[in-house]
Amino acid sequence: MSGGEGDNSYSTNSLLQRRALAKANPVLVKNIKELMMGMKFPKYIKVADLGCSSGQNTFLAISEIINTINVLCQKWNQNPPEIDCCLNDLLNNDFNTTFKSIHSFKEKSLTCKAPYFVYGVPGSFYTRLFPRKSLHLVHSSYGLHWLSKVPEGLEKNNMSVYITTSSQLSAYKAYLKQFQRDFTIFLKLRSEEMVSNGRMVLTFIGRNNIDNPLHRDCCHFWTLLSKSLHDLVIEGLVSASKVDSFYMPFYDPSKEEVKEIVGKEGSFEIKDLEAHEYDLGHCNQDGSKRSKSGQSEANYIRAVSEPLLVAHFGNAIINRLFSKFAYHVSQHAGCRNKTTVSLVLSLTRK
Length: 350
Prior knowledge:
Layout: H1 15-38, E1 44-50, H2 60-75, E2 82-89, H3 95-100, H4 102-108, E3 116-122, E4 135-141, H5 169-193, E5 194-207, H6 221-234, H7 240-244, H8 255-265, E6 268-277, H9 287-313, H10 318-331, E7 340-349
């Protein structure tokens, strides 16, 4: 993610994540209430937000968790527990921006009677992060569709950075295999860190299950990024071989694939699995609004992918690339994502 608070930062361009959090909120609140009631209102609870990133969305989930616990305890005339709030992300996450926001977050929570403590926990959630049997509640939003690495064995992908209808079936199998490996590791590690009957609420990008696993919408963000890179090849700004060797470490699983992985790993029981519309807000707009919407989506995709792109292509092409991307989005303003969805999954530790 792009750090800081500038025009191209994740902090400034994270409206989609805010929408995803809002749609997952009823599932999160329900699981918090069931957890607290099942534990008979404990004196202490430890929660972790994995892939917290930085900026205005960082404290949304933690705030909802704290407020839900506070309101529930008031309703049942119970003393609120002490809450440890652990914010996790990769080592290169902009934790400085996050920590600068803690004071304003606490000012907004002055009426909360539940005492809480906020910590940063740097590291990949594909590794162990916490002591055994220490976590009661785990939350993660828009992190688990990112793979730990690009899948091995990918063949030439026709200058596409991700799976498309023209990809080889082997590309889909390679991506699925990597996601199965990563998500299984994630579940295994969390099962070691969580108490019995602890809860997880996970939101990530997925896809509707259709007969062709290669199919992605014409307006899929990685499809449009591939078109934008192809434009730069035509203009002579980047080589075709350079584009052919770049792949996104990303996978959008179907509900069925998620269910199968959870079942095989065996440590958790699925309580909820919902699919919600994925929409950046540029659908069915008139021409006067298309350009602005195109730039908004370009800013969002740039915020989440720029570090990966710069590492492979360098800085020089980035502005031109996302100018092209904004144009392609505006040309697909009437396209609705039919396959791309936001999956909301809640799990109970057995």
